[in-house]
């Protein structure tokens, strides 16, 4: 799966591949021509990937073949045991969770999971969690606190499910309860945005000490299409909305909403998941090392101050405002 802006790169790669095949089949020496094309490819990749627009990053985050929580878990952790159900209603497959080891340190893992094909997308409700998903997440978080396990969450959702049955079972209360409880958990909490992170659906498992974000992910209260429909009465203005909303990783890092921008492999995480996992691993390692050195009171205070300071800005000199 590819995007329109990547087409020149894909066509040039195809041309190089065909030329290499032709050289081998006909026993010809075309190394000089191939070297020139490869050099041209490098320049083209730099030109395109270093000038990606905000909406193009949104498109990358939505790719069907973009790595999911379940793709990263076996590359980052060992002995993962998935746990199911909220003990109130049922098991929401849009949120997965369980216990594992990170470099021999027991941890609790929670993540939103979208489908990687049509059948799985339906099974996972396209990554839109129901209330029972957030209640399952909270159950696992309280268990992690009981056994003193750090919590690592993976954020990848376009939002909580807004359907009738979700409202009937208390989606707003479930998310609000998670925000309240997570703010006071006595264990380190680390969140990593690996794709989309929209609205309360994302925030419901990301009230964390540290929030990290992959380079081609986005984090916002609303999607660019929905914002465009409100502001300009036309979702076709999503490209403009994505730019104005400052929702990409570089933007939210500059605004102080996230702690670390994790670089992606060339073209996006889907091009080399193993290498991408190594980049995430180093971020988790440094984050855990820092947080495990804090006392319980310091952990809670650090988390409080982090979210209290989000949204603070200055107008003029020495005039702080916060919302």
Topology:
Elements: H1 7-25, H2 31-49, H3 54-61, H4 69-76, E1 78-82, E2 95-102, E3 105-112, H5 118-123, H6 131-146, E4 151-157, H7 164-168, H8 171-182, E5 189-198, H9 199-203, E6 210-214, E7 218-220, H10 224-231, H11 238-245, H12 249-254, E8 260-262, H13 273-292, H14 296-309, E9 313-314, E10 320-321
Parallel strand pairs: 3-4, 4-5, 5-6, 5-7, 6-8
Antiparallel strand pairs: 1-2, 2-3, 9-10
Helix pairs in contact: 1-2, 3-11, 4-13, 6-8, 10-11
Characterization of this structure:
By secondary structure, this protein is an alpha/beta fold. The chain has 14 helices and ten strands. Strands 1, 2, 3, 4, 5, 6, 7 and 8 form an eight-stranded mixed beta sheet that branches. Strands 9-10 form a two-stranded antiparallel sheet. Helix 3 packs across helix 11 and helix 10 packs across helix 11. The chain is globular, with a radius of gyration of 22 Å. It catalyses: N(6)-carboxybiotinyl-L-lysyl-[protein] + acetyl-CoA = N(6)-biotinyl-L-lysyl-[protein] + malonyl-CoA. It holds the Pfam family ACCA. Acetyl-CoA carboxylase is a heterohexamer composed of biotin carboxyl carrier protein (AccB), biotin carboxylase (AccC) and two subunits each of ACCase subunit alpha (AccA) and ACCase subunit beta (AccD). It comes from Metabacillus fastidiosus.
